[in-house]
Amino acid sequence: MNFDVIICGAGPAGLTASLVLGRAGLKVALIDKETSPGNKVCGDAIAAYVPKILTKICPEFAPAWEKCIMKTAVNTCRITSPGGKTLDLQYSESGYICKRSVFDTLLFGLVKQLPGITILTGTRVSDVKTDESHVEVATGEDQVLRGRLVIGCDGAGSITARRLTDARTDLTHCSGAVRAYFKDVKDIPPLTFELHFLRNILPGYFWIFPLPDNTASVGLGLPSRVIAAGKVNLKDKMFRIINEEPGLKARFADADLTGTPEVSLLPLGSRDLTVSGHRFMLCGDAASLIDPATGEGIGHAILSGRYAAWQAMRCFEENDFSASFMKGYDKSLYGKIRRHNRFRYLIRRTVVSRPYAINGVISLALKNKLIRKTIKKALE
Ligand SMILES: Cc1cc2nc3c(=O)[nH]c(=O)nc-3n(C[C@H](O)[C@H](O)[C@H](O)COP(=O)(O)OP(=O)(O)OC[C@H]3O[C@@H](n4cnc5c(N)ncnc54)[C@H](O)[C@@H]3O)c2cc1C
Question: What is the CATH number of the domain that holds 21?
């Protein structure tokens, strides 16, 4: 089978790249190992800018998102310091909490409507090769797809990244997190998502994100090196917090766990990696773009998918798929996402890692409007 572009992975990065390229009329293959989209462990928080970008890419997104009732709008970030002080940061624009099964399915529905896209679900990519004139993507089904360009959007542990770059998982640049769904957590403030910076989990945090139907996404993220050094069992740690933490245990006393808590890895954007080369680009988690301070990766996956699709269009216009021409993609990433991630990494190392620093910053912010504004801006 021959394609212009082969996209490995149908998460937010791959779906976005497919939307842009499909709408531009390119012949695209989109491959995912799962049979249905959104089977991803995630806190489910969607930044306010995400629906705006998706609407720019595909105007049909806006009415579909508007109609979707399985989401909760949030405009306030409640931060609890290790000392127990609470700071509410209110934003003029709402973000959302929406289960990934719902969000990714919505995007996938828009991709399915595009005529030039061949979708191969339930198909695992087993190998990726490039040569002078083509790329070859082999699947577990003994099928080989040929294309002129491959975009790796296959998440943490990406096979595209492993085959085409020298990238290796480095635990000093990863976090691990557990996510569970609970029903009937008490005292969930309206329009608010909560980040609890508890003393013994810094620079990680415990979160409560409100979903519709009295459900909440609840979880805990920690740097992988802390998990490895302390042999931390994230699920046990989460339940200990829920059952023992003074500010939380009463709120969870009558809450019901629905489903099973799940653990996954977050490749953080705190180091520079190869994200492009001859006939390939990497996006989202495959390129390690997660915000090192907050753990947000959906927005960066979407932005990088769009940048990669734009670069792919330039490659076809100029008939140039060389590593040097592909650097145009790196430039877009450096200009936006990587600069942002470097700043967030600095925040994590200087403020979020130290209980006295967070306590101090929150105490000051509670008294001073300008400091509140600065923190709000830094977390945007
Ligand atoms: C516990 C946890 C909580 C998080 N919370 C948030 C949050 O609240 N907000 C936020 O913005 N971000 C959050 N993130 C980060 C976010 O989930 C990711 O950054 C985002 O999903 C990245 O999108 P992606 O498209 O790059 O990769 P993914 O969403 O991981 O998609 C990759 C796709 O590739 C497919 N795939 C993988 N390997 C293969 C293969 N060999 N062959 C074929 N297909 C393959 C997978 O099935 C998947 O569909 C969280 C992450 C974790 C682990």
Answer: 3.50.50.60
